[in-house]
Amino acid sequence: MGFVIIKKIHKCGDNMTLLSEILDYNEAFVRKKEYLEYSTDKFPDKRMIIISCMDTRLVELLPKSMNIRNGDVKFIKTAGAVVSHPFGSVMRSVLVAAYELKADEVFVIGHYDCGMSAINADVLLEKMTNRGISKETISTLENSGIHLKHWLRGFDNVADSVQNSVSIIKNHPLLPKDVAIHGLVISPQTGKLDVIVDGYKQD
């Protein structure tokens, strides 16, 4: 029902929006059965999970640089490839993939020149108030025990950040010990991978 309503609104407008552009393309994509070349199942052929940054430069570069195709992996994207909480949604996704989807290796892949290394929590909060988030809302959250500056902060060194995320995953009490956790950093210009943590080597 919702989809039909969206289509009607989109057809009535004269101006091309991003949504209408996507829906037009999608309509042709499905009609021409272009989806057939991407057919696969829910289990990753290479039995691996990749946690990578949401950076636009990595959308195609990262899979190409690792010889990854549709159906090979489970992808999880976060700002900075950061796993910030052992019981957050990223870690839950890792556990689901490990237990339900036959994945037995995890690759945490950060990248050089990452925007998270330049994030200033104070500046970000100021941008929020400039976009209409009231100072009262921010104050209420802070008073509720949510440390926004800590939650929003970036990192100083991408290799250290990757190592920290690897440690959170590896030391999780619910993760099987036979799951290898690797840490890498990719160049967003060349696709070259540098190994930070070799998950096959035991501490």
Major β-sheet profile: 5 strands, mixed
Provide mean pLDDT, rounded: 91
**Physical arrangement of strands within the biggest beta sheet:** 2-1-3-4-5
- Write the CATH architecture name of the largest domain: 3-Layer(aba) Sandwich
Please state roughly what percent of the residues sit in beta strands, choosing from under 5%, 5-15%, 15-25%, 25-35%, 35-45% or over 45%: 15-25%
What is the number of beta strands?
A: 5
The N- and C-terminal alpha carbons lie at a distance of: 54 Å
Extract low-pLDDT stretches. Answer: 1-13
What is the 3D shape?
globular
- Rounded to an integer, what's the Rg over CA atoms? 20 Å
* Count of DSSP-assigned helices: 8
Helix content: 40-55%
CATH class descriptor name of the largest domain: Alpha Beta
SSE succession = HHEHEHEHHHHEE
